[in-house]
Design goal:
Helix content is 22%, strand content 38%. Keywords: Coiled coil.
Amino acid sequence: MRWTSLLLSLAVVIGLAVYFAPRGEAPAPVVDGEAPAPTPAAAAEAAPEVAPVAVLVLTVTAEETADRLLVPGRTSAIRRVSIAAETDGLVVSEPRRRGARIAAGEVLCRIDPGSRQAQLAEALARREKARADAAAAESLSAKGFTAETTRIARQAELEAAQAAVDLIRLDIARLEIRAPFDGILETDTAELGARLGLGDVCATLTDLTRLRATGYVSEQVVDRITPGGPASVRLVNGAQAEGSVTYISRSADEDTRTYEVEITLDNADGRLRAGMTAELRIDLAPERAHKVPQSALTLDDDGRLGLRLAEETATGHHARFVPVSILRDEPDGLWVRGLPETARVIAVGQEFVRDGRPIRPSEITWDELG
């Protein structure tokens, strides 16, 4: 019984092997000297090429276009000075409150003169004595009655006495601390009765007739900014102002690798405030670029952003990918660089073709694209 089961299993295996064994194809007979009929594999290889893909093509030409760079930043006062005392003494003037408008030359703090007038009187008396001594020495020296060195010494004493008078007069002039320019008080002036020492602050004055707006730009665009070129600023509160580029840093920030750019703004009417968040709008040098539909952009297999163009060759029309960079975004399209002077951009169907794929292009216009 056991040998019978083994023989039956062996017979089944041999039968399956014979059934599934590959069979060679018989050669096709040659009839009247003609070539044999092609096999199915050969017929597949001889099949026609892939049919062209129907696409819509928009022809675009390069145009001169000006770009505008948008940079976040903030405003600040061009002039903000803490005005300090250049002599010491008690304040004898009433304080001015912050926010007050100050004219150039207006007194901010007045210091008690103390004994300075008496010191001036003493210095004037010493000068008169020195002048008399110098005149007498000059006369005696001319007659030969005194040495030349005596005349020189008396003249030196006169000059020293005059210097003492000048120093006291200068100290007296510094008793009145005046505004160096038109501006607005950022702090109260020193209080009546307060004592100011040399270098103590009387008040802080800000000039808001002109403002600076500062931002930072990347390495890729800094060379396209022109010193003195037009620019504008839009503040977070909606206020806008025109200005010009007055400063471009020559060295990058060590951490961000960006360059500082400064715009100077006219603020004679006082509409703008210092310290506000702002958007700097800097006009860049014009360059030639193409305006294309935003929907025409695509990516290649390497993830590069670009467009597919319809190119005509000896064998027909084929698709070709061209990488581009975006210059500016507008509501009705994009301005890009990187295309030839005139380009036939595949505006519809670009996602269904690859480089070298045959296409059947049909022209389309901007109006038809909608």
